[in-house]
Each structure stands twice: as C-alpha cells, then as structure tokens.
Design a protein that fits this description.
The protein is an alpha+beta fold and about 80 residues long. It has 2 helices and 3 strands, in the order βββαα. The protein has a 3-stranded antiparallel β-sheet with strand order 1-2-3, with no helix packed on it. It is elongated and about 65 Å long. This is Translational regulator CsrA.
Length: about 80
C-alpha cells in the first residue's frame, strides 16, 4: 500500500484522470472529494464488501431442481 500525507486542500492524481482531494479533516473523520470519469465506479469499502458478499451468496445458492419443477407443474 502506498501511503501519502496530504493536508486539507491538497490532492493526489491517479492516471491523469482521477483526482482525490482532502476537503476537510476532523478528529477521526476525513472528507474526501473525487473527480473521475463517470465510468469509474467509486464505492465505500463497506458497500463494496456487501455487494461482493451478496454476489457470492447468489452464486452458490443451491437450487433444488425437483422442487422447482414441482412448483412449476403445480402452477399449470
């Protein structure tokens, strides 16, 4: 992990098109601003982890084929 020290109002540039700026620093909170192309997805880590977990759960969900067939046949 690259670690940089920045002060309020200072920025970091990533690959010529993403700018991350420190907007405000309080006791335990840092407010960060992002300038990036619209196709770059920016998520809080906890949201990213939740999406990843949901996707994993959906992918490994067991499907009982027979129960599904029975359910479809009962609707006919």
């Amino acid at each position: 992990m690259l670690v940089l020290s920045r002060k309020k109002g200072e920025s970091v540039i990533i690959q010529d098109n993403i700018e991350i700026t420190i907007l405000e620093v309080n006791a335990e909170t840092v407010k960060i601003g992002f300038k990036a192309p619209r196709d770059i997805e920016i998520l809080r880590k906890e949201v990213y982890a939740m999406i990843e977990q949901t996707n994993k759960e959906s992918a490994i969900q067991n499907v009982n084929i027979q129960a599904l067939k029975d359910r479809i046949n009962n609707k006919k």
